[in-house]
Amino acid sequence: MIRQALICFLKGYKFVVMDVPLLFEGPMHKIMQKIVVVHCDEENQIQRLMLRDSLAESEARARIQAQMPIEEKRKRATHPVDNNGDIEETKKQIHRIIDEFEASWLPVFIRAGIFTVIIALCLPVIKIFI
């Protein structure tokens, strides 16, 4: 995933979306600049999980209890998205985040810094052949 993200970065993409359900359970969150967490209350989560995976309520609750609490994930997010409402409200929140990411100049500055370092490292070698 990191290699693919780096390739996208070098190709000029402004941002890359990674779907990582257990992001905070491992070290990967430490290298993420922005983290979007889509959350809803536990009852909605249970109902949606039961419907999606054909689970009994006890199985859905057990699955949720096996994970980091959603409230903790929400607190760690740079961009929490409340998914308790209808799909249109969730889409509006996501579009606002996309607009913010698209407007950011930070990827351009990072890319310029990386290319400056690469050129500075290669310049002595280039001078040999000139």
Describe it.
This protein has a single domain (2-129), classed as Rossmann fold (3-Layer(aba) Sandwich), CATH 3.40.50. Helix content is 60%, strand content 6%. The mean pLDDT is 90. It has helices spanning 2-10, 42-53, 57-65, 70-76, 87-103, 106-129, and strands spanning 36-39, 79-82. The protein has 130 residues and is mainly alpha-helical. The protein starts with a helix and ends with a helix. The longest helix is centred in the C-terminal third of the chain and has 24 residues, at 106-129.
List the helices and strands and how they pair.
Layout: H1 2-10, E1 36-39, H2 42-53, H3 57-65, H4 70-76, E2 79-82, H5 87-103, H6 106-129
Parallel strand pairs: 1-2
